[in-house]
Each structure stands twice: as C-alpha cells, then as structure tokens.
Design a protein that fits this description.
single chain, alpha/beta, eight-stranded mixed sheet, about 30% helix, globular
Length: about 170
C-alpha cells in the first residue's frame, strides 16, 4: 500500500508504517475515521456502535519513572497498586502528557497499542480477551481499528495480567 493509501485510511503515518512492518497492511483499509474525536473510550464506543468494554485503551504510566504501557478494556479502570505489584516497582503514576508523546510518538487519545517511537514494557489486562474483536486507536484521536485481542496483545508484546480495579 502506498503512503497515499495509508493517509486515506486515516491512520497516523507512523502507525501505518508499523502495520506494514508487522505484515498487517491488510488492516489499513479497515481503519475507521470519524469526523468527531474518539479520544475517550466512551466516544469511541458510541462512534463505532460497540460495547464500551470492546474498546482497548492504551495507557502510559510511569513505574519508578520508567514508561510502561497498560492495555485495558474501555469499561474498566487500571488499579495502580496491582500494576505496581506486577512490575515490582516502588511507585506507579499516570504519565505526564509530554512523557506519553515522547515515549509513544502519539498524543493522548490517539495512542495505539503498538507502533510506538520507543519500546516499552506492555501489560495487557485479561479482560480484553472477553471479546472476539476489540477496537483500538490508530494513532489519532479520530481513528480506530478492529483486531482479535489475542493478536493485538501479541503484536504489542504484552504480558497478560489482572490489573483492573475490582468493584465489590
């Protein structure tokens, strides 16, 4: 696929290139672009017409100041204490906006699960496996793509964990 075709898909150029490098260029035509931002999981689910839990959020945290990517279903929140324990870290916090951009190369609200500027450790919550297909950002706050969650986690280099907040 040419760069023009990738741009027509709405994919961020870096993400389109990552898809080609991973042998996933066939995903480019399946990327959906929306006129309004799908920056939040709720906005994305409403635009797609899927369940909130079918959205795969790509969230960057700082574990002892080292970036880590957590992939979480759109209906759940990340439990920072569970992430801290999983990583054996002293402290885990939400990453600052500049760290997200520096680490991934993308703006918050458009961070895809893979195709980042730098390689980071990836934790993927098992809740993503509850669906046959999940939707994730394609590098911009206006674009999403569908993928089988097991394949998505594999391409992200993720470790399956249980790090979502549990509600009693």
């Amino acid at each position: 696929m040419t760069t023009d075709a990738a741009e027509e898909s709405g994919a961020h150029p870096r993400f389109a290139e990552a898809l080609r490098e991973l042998g996933l260029a066939d995903l480019l035509p399946r990327i959906r672009r929306f006129p309004d931002a799908t920056r939040t999981a709720a906005e994305a689910a409403a635009a797609i017409g899927c369940e909130l839990s079918q959205i795969c959020k790509s969230l960057i945290f700082a574990a002892d100041r080292v970036p880590v990517l957590v992939l979480m279903d759109g209906a759940s929140l990340v439990d920072l204490e569970l992430v801290r324990r999983e990583l054996g870290a002293e402290k885990v916090t939400r990453a600052r906006v500049d760290l997200v951009r520096e680490t991934t190369g993308y703006a918050i609200g458009g961070v895809p699960p893979f195709g980042h500027r730098t390689r980071t450790r990836v934790l993927a919550d098992r809740s993503l496996l509850d669906h046959d297909v999940v939707w994730a950002a394609a590098g911009t706050p206006y674009t999403v793509f569908p993928m089988d969650p097991k394949t998505l986690v594999a391409h992200a280099g993720g470790t399956l964990v249980d790090v979502r907040e549990q509600h009693l």
